[in-house]
Amino acid sequence: MSTVDAVDLGRRRFLTATATVVGGVGAAFVAVPFLKSWSPSERAQAAGAPVEADISKLEEGALMTVEWRGKPVWMLKRTEKMLAELPTLNDQLLDPRSEMASQQPKYAQNANRSINPQILVLVGICTHLGCSPTFRPDIAPADLGPAWKGGFFCPCHGSRFDLAGRVYKGVPAPSNLVVPSYRYLSDSRVLIGVDPETA
């Protein structure tokens, strides 16, 4: 084999490898947008699919949080004492009977603002400017005063909500915390984002 043939063979290998690499890069540029088109759009992701929550290990008086549509959703297992205190606060609340229909589904427009009286399901976003309140189950703490019987306190601007998510009078928040649509799949499983009627 002559030197000329050896050089041509080396060039051929180089050109073949280069063409393969360029072709592979080109295929990737075509494939990525194509495969990405299979993913849900940002609009669809923002709409949010239902989220299932297991409340089997939720203890009385405890709060758990799941994320739905990019928002925290709280599930509070209220004690009998917590439930008994709710009616005693009505005269201090802006909307004690939850008459603003947009704040909860019809099936949660009741004294407990829930399907199951013991389990409260709320979107954990203050209705004032969108901060996330803190869960304050303590009774009569020094910073909230002797009349405080437990609830949610927004540290951003001082809004207060009771253990049904109902807003107190005279605070910046204009309405109760929102109850999302939800239904029970079993005694211990809750599906957030779906009404019972659509089951």
State the share of residues found in helices, binned by percent.
10-25%
CATH topology of the largest domain: Rieske Iron-sulfur Protein
The tally of beta strands, per DSSP, is 9
Please describe the biggest sheet, giving its number of strands, its sense, and whether it closes into a barrel. 3 strands, antiparallel
N-to-C terminal Cα separation, in Å?
79 Å
Number of domains: 2
The H/E string reads HHEEEHEEEEEE
Radius of gyration: 28 Å
Lateral strand order in the biggest sheet: 1-9-8
Which structural class should the secondary elements be placed in?
Answer: alpha+beta
CATH hierarchy: architecture of the largest domain: 3-layer Sandwich
Provide the low-confidence segments as ranges.
none
If you had to describe this structure to a student in words, what would you say it looks like?
23% of the residues lie in helices and 20% in strands. It has 199 residues and is of the alpha+beta class. A three-stranded antiparallel sheet has the order 1-9-8, with no helix packed on it. Strands 2-3-4 form a three-stranded antiparallel sheet, with no helix packed on it. The longest helix is centred in the N-terminal third of the chain and has 34 residues, at 3-36. The chain is elongated.
